[in-house]
Amino acid sequence: MAWAVAVGVTVAVLGAAPAAHADAAIAIDPPDNAVAGSVKLTGTAGAGPGQLTSVLYVYDATKSTDGPAGSDCTGNGLVNAADDLNGDGTVGDVLDCEISGLGAQRTVCRPA
Question: Which residues contact 40 (CB under 8 A, 6 or more apart)?
């Protein structure tokens, strides 16, 4: 049985009329041999000369992120208090790992 994988990207540039953002660009490279599971996406985003860019990070903080606990969210090889990134007393739950992942993404999402 074959499965199709679809990736959708929506980009919104806010703050001025669309013509003012004519130089803004985003490119997502197509993944190689995408299958069910994790898919690494790469690409570039940028604004025209003199324009500002912003990145909005969104994470799921619903009850579904309460567990399971006990993951090494920091990637340091240990499961300890450092893995309680939101300070709720639960070490290494899904939300902690989401927060850690967003922090890592912020590190690599720097202007060239």
Answer: 31
Looking at the fold, whether 78 and 36 belong to one and the same domain comes out as no
| Last residue within a domain, chosen from 36, 53, 70 | 53
Give the model confidence (pLDDT) of 2-31 as tens digits.
333 333 444 444 444 444 555 667 777 887
CB-CB contact of 96 with 84 (8 Å): yes
Cβ–Cβ under 8 Å, residues 66 and 98: no
- What is the model's pTM? 0.53
Q: 42 pairs with which residues across the strands?
A: 29
As to burial, measured by CB atoms within 10 angstroms (0-12 exposed, 13-18 middle, 19+ buried), residue 93 is: buried
The answer to whether the beta carbons of residues 7 and 31 sit under 8 Å apart is yes
Report d(CA 45, CA 51) in Å as an integer. 12
Are residues 67 and 107 in contact, defined by beta-carbon separation less than 8 angstroms? no
